[in-house]
Amino acid sequence: MKFSNGCWLQKEGCACFAPTEAYFTKVTDTSVTICAPTTHITNRGATLGGINLTVKITSPREDVLRVQTYHHLGTVKKNPEFDLNIQDLKLNTVETEEMITITSGSLSLEITKKPWSMTYKRNGKVVTKSSGRDLALMKTDWKGDAYDKGDLSETYIRQQLSLGVGELLYGTGEHFTPFVKNGQSIDIWNADGGTSTEQAYKNIPFYISNKGYGVLVNHPENVSFELGTEMVTRAEFSVEGGYLDYFLFSGETMKDVLVEYTDVTGKPSLPAPWTFGLWLSTSFTTNYDEATVMSFIDGMLERGIPLRTFHFDCFWMKEFHWSDFIWDERVFPDPEGLLKRIKAKGLNICVWINSYIGQESALFEEGMEKGYFLKRPTGEVWQWDMWQPGMAIVDFTNPEAYKWFQDKLEVLMDMGVDCFKTDFGERIPTDAVYYDGSDPKKMHNYYTYLYNKCVYELLERKRGKGEAVLFARSATVGGQKFPVHWGGDCWSDYESMEESLRGGLSLLMSGFGYWAHDIGGFEHTSTADVIRDG
Questions:
Q1: Are residues 224 and 307 in the same domain?
Q2: Domains in the chain: how many in total?
């Protein structure tokens, strides 16, 4: 989000409240907390009123520093939060009259007391810094102290970290825009937009620099990045409200940084060997039956193409019934027999699912009566007609709904299904009510974590850790623990292959270990050369 009007001015109605000094500090073995007034304190009378920021520094891992900036400490923190592996390590803190130096491993943060500045160093060498108005509380509808309601409406906190000459940034999830993220404005907001727009299915609020550091903005909700845009020499990130939490990871190489990042957010699980073979999908073929499916499989084998997995896409279920996890008996009257016949050819089997329950689904009434769906503030089931008429959305914050969803999929696994394509999970409303009271804005991106976790846990339980694999489209921080992810809906041409490659590389620079894509595209029909070169 852009706040400024050039180098010196703010946008009309926008006010910037940045620390002017470290007025006093509280130091413990594991933390440093700083009172940072946003006005110059010339005498004790100058402490009456005005905006202070509270800045707390901790170390969740060696060579990692966490910076939390608060406006009002009494603001209630709402769930969900990312599932992180963190602890408060002992800090080496040195304080003088002029400076506070906080060190974890080879990474240190130097904060000058007056005027305020922050400088990150690795082994004494500067990697990035901020000063002046870089860290700030931003009010975008400011009318003066006397007219401010003290709430968080039209309020943001931002940080701007310096970019050096030749410094390049990568990551932020599976974005299909240019691989180098310098010069891009990126909102971390999952969307079902295909592979040819600035929207992304897998948004990760993390970027990594070729200078050997990375930044995770620890917020599941929308994070707005301005990477060398609002200020050419700054990487800026901002969140709505009066609280900003970010981690800075340091390493000699970008690989070292990614190791540290995944130490905190989770390591990618190793998929089974069979998953690395060729998968064949019915894609969005709307009319097929057992004969058609077997002709696809036999046709590959006859051509000497080493097929390893067959995937049933949407229409293994009846139209308007997605998802009820019930085979369409009109075209698949003997699903268990069909799966056995496919497996006899040495193939594994995947089926398409999503977490949206259409009104015609056999599961709709059951889920509605038991309270397993997202609700509106009125208490009614949250429904709309996008994708499936009258569809509801499973509420994975409800433990009973979580198990209910697994139970339905377990029936399919007992038939012989090996894995699931966990499609969708991006169009999650921001006005829904969750079973556990989670903030719907935070849940918009985080929903996919619970969705994929639910299915992956079932696969691990039924098939074992070495066999569990998904074919997932949406993701957020930590989603790498539930591989594999694929690139979403792409066009059937070379330009789309290029877009997909950029997206996959960006995702892998965001802590993910495994990624795939549709070889011949999804939209339209590819020519033979696209399939061959893909």
A1: no
A2: 2
Give the CATH number for residue 359: 3.20.20.80
- Are both 277 and 363 inside the same structural domain? yes
Residue 399 inside a domain? The answer is: yes
Residue 413, beta-bridge partner list: none
The verdict on residue 44 lying in a domain is yes
Residue spans of beta strands (DSSP E) within 200-273: 203-209, 213-217, 224-227, 234-240, 243-250
What values do phi and psi take at 520, rounded to 5? -95, 10
pTM: 0.96
C-alpha torsion angle, residues 278, 284, 285, 286 (rounded to 10): 150
Domain check: are 240 and 138 in the same one? yes
367/244 same-domain check: no
Q: How far apart are CA 20 and CA 36, in angstroms?
A: 7
What is the C-alpha separation between 100 and 342, in angstroms, rounded? 66
> Which residues are the active-site residues?
423, 426, 489
State whether 448 and 312 are in the same domain.
Answer: yes
**Domain range spanning residue 95?**
4-162+219-248
* Ordered per-residue pLDDT tens for the chain, 534 residues: 999 999 999 999 999 999 999 999 999 999 999 999 999 999 999 898 889 999 999 999 999 999 999 999 998 789 999 999 999 999 999 999 999 999 999 999 999 999 999 999 999 999 999 999 999 999 999 998 888 888 888 999 999 999 999 999 999 999 999 999 999 999 999 999 999 999 999 999 999 999 999 999 999 999 999 999 999 999 999 999 999 999 999 999 999 999 999 999 999 999 999 999 999 998 778 888 999 999 999 999 999 999 999 999 999 999 999 999 999 999 999 999 999 999 999 999 999 999 999 999 999 999 999 999 999 999 999 999 998 999 999 999 999 999 999 999 999 999 999 999 999 999 999 999 999 999 999 999 999 999 999 999 999 999 998 999 999 999 999 999 999 999 999 888 889 899 999 999 999 999 999 999 988 878 777 787 776 666
